[in-house]
Amino acid sequence: MTCADGRVLGGRHFPVPSGAERLGTVVIACATAVKANYYHRYAAFLADHGFDAVTFDYRGIGESRDGSLRRQKVRWYEWGSLDIDAVLAWALERSGGLPVHLVGHSFGGFGVGLAPHASQVQRILTVGAQHAYWRDLRLRHKVGHWARAAVAVPLVGICGYFPAKRLGLMEDLPGGVAVDWARSRKDFTTAASGAQREALLTSLAGVTAPILAIAPNDDSYATIPAMERAVAYTPNSAARIIHLRPQQYGETALGHFALFHSKYKDTFWEQTLEWLRDGTWADR
Q1: Is residue 164 part of a domain?
Q2: By percentage, how much of the chain surpasses pLDDT 70?
Q3: Which of 85, 115, 108, 79 lies closest to 222, judged by CA?
């Protein structure tokens, strides 16, 4: 999938089985520092239930890394305005007139609004979506965010990128993305300036698809203020925010990542199907 600036992304297509009814296409947008293969089980589930599914890695990550990160100048907002946009364009071109939806995890659920082609998406489901503005976090998580930011910024200066794997974290990050994450602003769009910022605002205003914003109530990032801030960026889209209780799924904790594990295919994954098919959500 080729972006507007010529960058090529690696991704996977999970087609509906031959002979089965196609209901549409779902693009799955990753969380920051998470490779697309984390969502492959969920993508296969969607394909088995009538939706072509598309996963992809952002530039600098996984199959879209393209060499050393030291020479790559990538900004966080470009993951939305260029990368998510390219994948949406690819999916829309091949949709055959059927709806194209998006499921976005963490940044993926926020970043979709930065993509010009998001104006053609029919439904959006976000899971733990926000842009890590520190004031929205609970106190103990604010401290953790400050600590990681204090490490990330100088390491980017030394290494030219954020070497997350060496620290036992997830995927290495391009330097610009890591610094944007560490210094996340109250108004995310001010990370860009001039014509680029105006383009981001135009894309956000163009989103009219209804948004169902979901997160467990023990998600360290997706507090209610963080989720409210995220959906406020798309003022022309009707949004519903739901905080899930782990006890609804027989758990004592869920956190930021658990819901994409296959153990939830008969519970949470089935609920997401209802939203993608019918635009409804049945509380458990």
Answers
A1: yes
A2: 100
A3: 108
pLDDT tens profile 180-213? 999 899 999 999 999 999 999 999 999 999 999 9
| pLDDT, position 254 | 97
**Is 140 a residue whose pLDDT tops 80?**
no
Is residue 176 situated within a structural domain? Answer: yes
What's the rounded Cα separation, in Å, for the pair 80 and 72?
17
Q: Which long-range contacts (CB under 8 A, 24 or more apart) does 137-143 make?
A: 137/220, 137/221, 137/223, 137/226, 138/220, 138/223, 141/220, 141/221
Number of domains making up the chain: 1
Cα–Cα–Cα angle for 169, 171, 203, rounded to 5 degrees: 120
Q: How far apart are CA 129 and CA 32, in angstroms?
A: 11
Angstrom distance (rounded) from CA 155 to CA 175: 9
For residues 284 and 264, the answer to whether their CB atoms sit within 8 Å is no
* Three state DSSP letters for 82-132: HHHHHHHHHHHHCCCCCCEEEEEECHHHHHHHHCHHHHHCCCEEEECCCCC
DSSP label at residue 143: H
2 within domain boundaries: no
User: Is residue 6 in some structural domain?
Assistant: no
- What domain range includes position 111? 11-278
| CATH for 61 | 3.40.50.1820
Q: Work out whether strand 24-29 and strand 51-56 pair parallel, antiparallel, or are unpaired.
A: parallel
What pLDDT, on a 0 to 100 scale, did the predictor assign at position 51?
98
- 165: helix, strand or coil: helix
CA-CA distances (angstroms) from residue 234 to 90, 160, 238, 284?
23, 33, 9, 28
Among residues 90, 95, 108, 82, the alpha carbon closest in space to that of 52 is found at 95
